Amino acid sequence: MTETTNEAAAYERQGEAPHFWQGEFVGDEEAGRRLAGLPGAVEAALATVLETETVLAACDALATALRDPAHPVRARLAAHLPAGQDPGVLAELGGLLGRRELTRKLRRELGGATPGRLDRADPRETVYEAWAPVGLVAHIAPGNAATVAPLSIVEGLLAGNVNVLKTSSSDSLFTQHLMAELAALDPGGTLAARVVVLRFPSSRQEWLRLMCAPADAVAVWGGEGAVEGVAAHVPAGCRLVEWGHRISFAYLTAGAWSDAATLDALADDVCLHEQQACSSPQVVYLDTEDEKEVFAFAERFAAVLAARPPAAAVAAPDPAEAAELTTTELVARLEEHLGLTRVFAAPDGSWRVMADTRSPLTASPLHRSVWVKPLPRERLIATLRPMRRYLQTAGLAGSPSDIAELSRTVLAAGVTRVTPVGAMLESYAGEPHDGVYALQRYSRRVAVQADPARFATTACLDDLARPVVLPAPAGPLRGKEDVQAPARELGRADAELYFRSGGSTGAPALSVFSYDDYDTQMHAAARGLLAAGYDPVGDRTANLFYCGGMYGSFISFFSVLERLGGVQLPLSAGPDHRATARAVIDHGADTLFGMPSYLWQLLHAEADALRAYGGLRKVFYGGEHFTEEQRRTLEADFGIEVIRSITYGSTDLGPLGYQCTESSGGVHHLHADLHTLEIVDLAEDRPVTPGETGRLVFTTHARRGQRLGRYLIGDLGREVPGRCPCGRHAPRFELTGRTGDVMRVATYFLNHRRFLTLAGEQGGLRGELQIRLDRTQARERLTVRVERAPGTDPDRLREVFLSGYPELASAVSERLLDLTVEAVDGASLDRSPTSGKLLAVIDTRR
């Protein structure tokens, strides 16, 4: 029996198979059989798209469990940690797997939180680019490094790859069980299909060959020998991603090396992890040629190391390491007789500082062993460049101008990372490793060029190819207060941008965003605007949304146009209609953004000038709706050719839906890459029958620091069945009003939208309509206030309402309700003071 077979048999006798293969643990024999069929398994896995959100959601859930000492997942994984491993590594790993850190990594390395979607690189061109997986990434992990292997697989998953990882035969099964826990958090199974973890020694060359042969990239950790051993199995054209051993150093200027705080910080870098990290300093360079200064510094620094407590959790040197420590120190002591060196060491051998008059870089035997050498800054490049393949971190100490100058110099010499002394082992989310971004090494940049005429309104090519599948919503339904209260408690890192709702449907609410959230949402709204027919090349836009008072529409659509590269006049809505119209005409605007109520007022107040101008072609509106009569007026009187919703959204959740060129009225596509939509019964918290009207419930998946799940937004709507003629797979829904527009009056439920439809279709109303509810001594009173225009007949409208709305007629005939219709000036209708939105229903009965 081979060594591997013995180990595998031992694990299986314990009831624990040593290999994790696409969602299940298997024994040695089964793993060997499957390994021979690896190419087919890879092809089957790649046939299903892995959404980035699936990876983020699963990793975030696992991170939450790892940070909770009482969580059963953490307890299960702790049992599989390598012997002597501090369980605190689980919380550390949890900190690295959270949504915040991984999203930041995606943005930094691949430019966005959904890098795999084929979006327009420039919205003005029908060229689509994305980061695509290379295919299969084979990971050769180092032994006894608990976090390296699983984090490498997560990087491969974030890039969308299938991943096969080899752990050392001496490793525990921690990585296998961690990946099993991660895969279990994706009920769809797409994560499991992309993960294989094998445990075998490097001497088993046939398994190594089978693992690398179908790979598109091979990532390997270790020294030159380990890399060479794997490279022999890497096929031509396959990327070899080396994460080899590196050497780091500290560099101190004259003003810094005499500073006690600098020496303490340097000792921190040396003692943390006992120099076992690649970023630990092995050499301390001084900006001098004076040997006496080198020896004097070494003596002072030795005193600092002597005051440090002994190593705690790091294993003692093995025999080979101990021999290297002894040999290095002995040779340095012998060279003292030549005046080349001076050694300062602990009597028990726990640390040593070796001053050397020669500048070339020398590797340290580690375990608190430090070289101190002279190196004037003018000789930095010549001295260090021969070792450029091995350089990693330079810890610098000096004045700000020194740091700036020396940073450029050491980077030119081959260093990939510069930090302050005392922070050499610190890192940040998304930091490049050894001079490269891992996610880019595991990805390909791909592009699709499309016919501009046929794809003018297609912002994302994936919308036409497949539906987006996001994790299913869970938890109770939540209202505005359930969302608002946690938002008020957000930390500074997640609360960077504040918006207040207009308060048109209730008390104004405060919504909080990170800038990353805002950027994601503005890009989504921009894609929706393209779908609705906006042309960033030809359209000239007047942004006429209201501005100020923390109200967000004007700012948001300024940002949308900025991302689209569209021409805009940021005028904002204002009372001086003449000045606004003059600006539109003088600057040749042909597209208007704004609230229907404001645009209606502007167009009619300046009708003569705008008709004479004749340049208006498109209107994109938000917050309210134009009636069919109003649309016909805009088309007939002002020559408007395109009238569409600019977006459907809310202050809390951002853009939720968008219209395409096939959409009309209240029909929208869901922003399915950001949200999940459910429609629940009006009275009970259960799904409606498909096609039935209900309450709209949204779950937002792409928000940092906030969980906005199953949020009752206050709108009513119904599902629109079937695939849209535009070809998009995104679900469609039709807005049918707001829950606040449904009024309980005189024992009946009446709907503002029904009044509006009757007034437009049967009463010829072209303007706006508002309902006011009051109590009198005798009964309730419902007053319908309509915008006065030539031909407006309140009595005729009253008859239309009574004949077309049986419930209303019953309430009036039963003398439970008084019905009045008034024609008023549009300016006298009540509106939200913040947004300018028409208040559809004003209820004073409370």
Label this structure with key terms:
28 helices, 7-stranded mixed beta sheet, 846 residues, alpha/beta, 37 strands, disordered N terminus, 23% strand
Provide structural commentary.
- This protein is α/β, with parallel strands linked by helices and 846 residues long.
- A 7-stranded mixed beta sheet has the order 2-1-7-6-5-8-9, sandwiched between helices.
- Strand 12 and strand 13 form a beta hairpin.
Query: C-alpha Rg, in Å?
Result: 34 Å
Q: Measure the end-to-end span.
A: 86 Å
Oligomer state of the chains in this structure: single chain
Helix content: 25-40%
Tell me the number of strands. 37
What is the residue-averaged pLDDT?
Answer: 91
Q: State which percent range the strand residues make up.
A: 15-25%
Major sheet, described briefly? 7 strands, mixed
> Overall 3D geometry?
elongated
Strand line-up in the sheet with most strands: 2-1-7-6-5-8-9
Helical segment count: 28
Summarize the structure.
This protein has about 850 residues and is an alpha/beta fold. It is about 35% helix and about 25% strand.
Write the layout of secondary structure elements.
Elements: H1 3-13, E1 19-21, E2 24-26, H2 28-36, H3 38-46, H4 52-67, H5 72-78, H6 88-97, H7 99-110, E3 119-120, E4 127-133, E5 136-140, H8 148-158, E6 162-167, H9 174-184, E7 195-199, H10 205-212, E8 217-222, H11 224-231, E9 239-244, E10 247-252, H12 254-257, H13 260-271, E11 281-286, H14 291-306, H15 319-335, E12 341-345, E13 352-356, E14 369-374, H16 380-384, E15 391-397, H17 400-413, E16 417-420, H18 438-441, E17 443-449, H19 480-488, E18 497-500, E19 510-513, H20 515-531, E20 540-543, H21 553-564, E21 567-569, H22 577-586, E22 591-594, H23 596-605, H24 607-613, E23 618-621, H25 628-638, E24 642-645, E25 648-650, E26 654-658, E27 667-670, E28 675-680, E29 694-700, E30 708-720, E31 732-738, E32 742-745, E33 748-751, H26 752-761, E34 769-775, E35 780-787, H27 794-804, H28 806-813, E36 817-824, E37 841-843
Parallel strand pairs: 5-6, 5-8, 6-7, 8-9, 10-11, 10-15, 11-14, 13-14, 15-16, 20-21, 20-22, 22-23, 23-24, 34-37, 35-36
Antiparallel strand pairs: 1-2, 1-7, 3-4, 4-17, 12-13, 18-19, 25-26, 26-27, 27-31, 28-29, 29-30, 30-31, 32-33, 34-35
Helix pairs in contact: 4-6, 4-9, 20-21, 22-23, 27-28
